[in-house]
Amino acid sequence: MKKNIMIVGVGGQGTLLASKILGRAAMDSGLDVKVSEVHGMSQRGGSVVTYVRVGDEVYSPVIGRGDADVILSFEILEAARWLPHLKPGGTIVTSTQEINPMPVITGAAEYPEGLADDMKALGVDVRAYDAPAIAAAAGSARASNVALIGLAADVLGFDLAVLRDAVAACVPQKALDVNLCAFDAAIARAAENKNA
Questions:
Q1: Rounded CA separation 33/26 (Å)
Q2: Mean pLDDT throughout 85-93?
């Protein structure tokens, strides 16, 4: 397996934990993995991106324009921002959550509408879900990062049991039950959408 995964979002959404989970799943699968540091404003509210590259041998953690197999996006405007990094035939799995960037907060710009439809109109495989709602129904909206991993499980390339074990290994014990519930609920939701 060879996979280039970009994790994009806004500081405070749990992108770092998501990259740790995917890195653990890769190692547990016997694969080489390189995970970049978080790039961007990792404090709450700033745009962040992390690269996860998986394969038999990986030499660099950086993913260039047009090289990402999967973009895992925690916020829909971030999915649109990083779209040029997606390779032809790649997949974006995004939360529909909207977090206003500073230009919107200050009134200098408006949050764009219809982003998922705009990306689909370009021929991109976009799978958009309300990840916080799925996580909240499982017990806590804070588990939306793990829910998003579950929603993307079929395109991430890992065995489901390995991915679930990686969640169990990386999530703090006090939050483990709700995160596993969110992961399982997301797997079920993605399967429903696939069969619809």
A1: 6
A2: 97
- 13 or 170: whose pLDDT is higher? 170
Q: In the structure encoding, which two tokens stand for residue 63, read together?
A: 């993913």
Supply 38's token pair.
Answer: 């978080």
- How far is Cα of residue 108 from the mean position of the Cα atoms in its chain? 28
Residue with tokens 């939306």: 144
Task: Outline where 29-152 has alpha helix (H).
Answer: 76-81, 102-105, 115-121, 131-138, 144-151
pLDDT score of 112: 93
- H-assigned helices in the chain: 15-28, 76-81, 102-105, 115-121, 131-138, 144-151, 153-156, 160-170, 176-195
If phi > 0 it is left, if psi is from -120 to 50 it is alpha, else beta; for residue 61 that is alpha
Least Cα distance to 103 among 83, 77, 80, 84 occurs for: 77
- What's the rounded Cα separation, in Å, for the pair 150 and 68? 19
What's the CATH code of the domain at 86?
A: 3.40.920.10
Measured at the CA of 130, the angle between CA 102 and CA 186, to 5 degrees, comes to 135
Which range marks the domain in which residue 57 is found? 3-195
Count of structural domains within the chain: 1
Give the total residue count for the chain.
Answer: 196
Distance CA 119, CA 79 (A): 9
Q: Give the chain's radius of gyration (CA, Å).
A: 16
pTM summary value: 0.93
